[in-house]
Amino acid sequence: MDIGFRAGQRVTCLMTPGFGAPRVYAVGGATYSLDRATAERIRTREPSE
Amino acid sequence: MKNILLVGAPNSGKSALFNQLTGLSHKVANYPGITVDVGTGALRADSRLTVWDFPGTYSLTAVSGEEQVAIDTLRTALKSDEQAVVAMVCDATRLEKSTTYCLQVARECAQAQKPFLVLLNMMDVIESDGLDMDVEGLSKALGVHVLPVSARTGQGLSEVEAALVSSPPEISTWGDTPDALISGTATQIAERFAPKGDLLVRRQAKLDSWLLGTFSGGVAFVMIMTLFFQAIFTWAAPLMDGVESIVIAMGSLIASVLPDGVLADFVNDAIFGGLGAFLVFAPLVFILTMIVGALEDSGYLARAALICHRPLSFFGLSGKSFVPLLSGVACAIPAIYAARTMSSRQERLLTYVAIPLMPCSARLPVYALLIAILIPDETVLGGIIGWQGLAMSGIYFFGIMTALIVAAVVSRMGDTATSSQAFILELPAYRMPALKPIMSKSLDRVVHFIRKAGSVIFVVTVVVWFLGYFPNGGEDLSSSWLAALGRFIEPVFSPLGLDWRYGVAIIASFLAREVFVGTLGTIFGIESADEDPASLADQIAASGLTAASGVALVVFFTIALQCVSTVALLAREAKSARFAVQLLLGYLVLAWLVAWLVYSVASLLLR
To answer: Hey, how many other C-beta atoms are within 10 angstroms of the C-beta on B218?
Structure first.
């Protein structure tokens, strides 16, 4: 499932919604909500590293 | 015959474009995964061309049933000898999510020697936000024809039609490109040509911080849902009163013209009493579809699905179940189709278990009739909140909670818990709902409601009238053939305080729930043949239906699965007739038991 989480792509966590809902991330020009188990499978690093 | 295949990512506006190109009205919504089947229609500009509307997929790798359908159908069409043009619909405001899929399809089209072009949709948003989009540069980079268009405003549509009809696009040169190059090139193209700046994301994030916040999001959700249920009843009431007045006036007029006899009695009791009583509720369906349509178009549904994810997971469901369940408030049929977007079979089955308990529009006439009988038409808080509207909210709440509790019990009984399933949900951009398509969809829904249920109701009312009118010419309903049949089944319903008339109406309503109102309309029409015409609610109230029995009826209708179409579709979609029959029988027994319990308690309390 290619929704834009590609190597080198900038990912921003936009918010942690209320009611224990999964976090919201911006990738490219789109916004997705991913549950913790799915998000943990995407490897990220800080832009400064 | 030449085919135009519209493909693209979810929520990129394929169905809206399909509707513009064909003049048809496929269901569209600002929510990913609304199209779950391949639809076709003739191109309005040239009826020799057929347009195909595919379910959205993010790539050529399927993760759910409806994505597999889309990909298989596309590959079959590409292999076929028939002429075909593939049009990739891309959301210009979110170009990044389409570029890889776009190049993958371009490659398959080149291998199959089929022409390919890109339709860059939602250009109205790009322009209204003052964003730049180098369409020509994008066309050169992709090596294919790119046409800017807005399915919403119709901008660029004539150029698209002209390109499809008169100058077929060329075959792309991506045929031998390896996967790695596709991926790298897609990223480069997206970085270079996607709208610069994060204006759209920032604007959306600002609204999200309010609508998804712990306190503000909860308040917004409760307010929107309260408005939803209040509006169904409050806004529809004047329209329903209008239709009822017309039905009663027409009935009186025709009765005064026709000579006394069987024909006059038939027209008065079966046509105006039975069919007329059902038609009164058509405005409710119109208002309900309008509100659901506005919510779908606004982009709020995905947010509601998100904040419901954790609470729903407690009941074994997930946020992905939210839209099918909310669709079930209008009708179980589209709700069952909507559940196709769930990748897990267990999750789908559990959602199927809950959908028939959602308070669908077919139950609305029954609820509205019983509320009109049991609850006074008074308001509080300066006329803002009506008791009848509150009662309707209460019934809906009861139905929804019953659905959730049953899902929770079933998920804990078997291996159907969904909490371990991956949850990925795209949050579409917010937008102002477009009134015209919503009105048109709502009218379509009303026509469908009247056609589908009306034909069944007509047949049932004629049969019920015949059995109730003879052998004594309508003189005494209690000695009619219908009464004899009704008394045979009366023991089943007498523990709920209901006599044979309600028993007959309940049995008839297993064809479709709306039949209940039409059947009672006919029965009470025969019974009060010589009296002044009055609304069915007034006639039933005057006949002495107790509050406890009225509440028991509401409970019975909330739980029982009285819809032949839903049972048939459940069997097909779940690929198990046994599953559908188990639900039918299980909900019938549960409906009777809970109704009996409620009747017993209410009888004690209201004594």
So the answer is: 14
Which chain B residues contact residue A3 at CB under 8 A? 58, 97, 424, 426
Which residue in chain A has the smallest CA separation from B183?
A6
Q: Quote the DSSP letter at residue B36.
A: -
In Å, how far are B474, B475, B500, B516 from B527, measured between CA atoms? 8, 8, 14, 17
Answer yes or no: are the C-beta atoms of B231 and B287 closer than 8 Å: yes
- Measured between beta carbons, the chain A residues lying within 8 angstroms of B198 are 26, 29
**pLDDT of residue B464 exceeding 90:** no
Residue of B nearest to A31 (CA): B427
E strand or H helix at B267? none
Q: What is the 3-state secondary structure (H, E, C) of B135-200?
A: HHHHHHHHCCEEEECCCCCCCCHHHHHHHHHCCCCCCCCCCCCCHHHHHHHHHHHHHHHCCCCCHH
Contact A17 B93 (CB under 8 A): no
Cα–Cα distance, A24 to A17 (Å, whole number):
7
Tokens 């291998």 sit at which residue?
B111
The region of weakest confidence among B85-94, B416-425, B534-543 is: B416-425
Q: How confident is the model at residue B232 (pLDDT cuts 50, 70, 90)?
A: low
Q: Rounded to an integer, what distance in angstroms lies between the CA atom of residue B553 and that of residue A27?
A: 51
Nearest to A31 among B213, B307, B427 (CB): B427
pTM above 0.80, yes or no: no
pLDDT of residue B150: 93
Please give the structure tokens belonging to residue B161. Answer: 């039609």
B116, B109 Cβ separation under 8 angstroms:
yes
Residues of chain B neighbouring A34 (CB-CB closer than 8 A): 423-424
Q: What is the pLDDT of residues B58-91, one digit of tens each?
A: 888 766 666 777 788 888 888 887 878 899 999 9
Q: Which residue has the tokens 């739980």?
A: B559
> Tokens standing for B165?
């009809």
Q: Which residue of chain B comes nearest to A9, CA vs CA?
A: B187
Across the interface, of A26, A34, A38, the residue whose CB is closest to B201 is A26
Quick one: which H or E segment has residue B298?
Answer: helix B282-298
Structural domain boundaries of chain A? 8-44
Contact yes or no for A9 and B187 at CB 8 A: yes
CATH topology of domain B2-197: Rossmann fold (3.40.50)
d(CA B422, CA B428): 19
User: Is A35 in Cβ contact with B307 (below 8 Å)?
Assistant: no
Find residue A43's DSSP bridge partners: none
Q: Do B233 and B386 touch, CB atoms closer than 8 A?
A: yes
Q: What is the CA radius of gyration of chain B?
A: 27
Contacts of B308 (CB under 8 A, 6+ apart): A19, B319, B322
For chain B, the domains span 2-197, 220-417+440-605
Tell me the per-residue pLDDT of B258-283, one tens digit each, with 9 for 90 and over: 887 788 888 877 788 777 777 877 88
Residue with tokens 């040169």: B173
Closest CA to B595 of B557, B539, B562, B545: B557
Cis ω for the linkage preceding B471 (within 30 of 0): yes
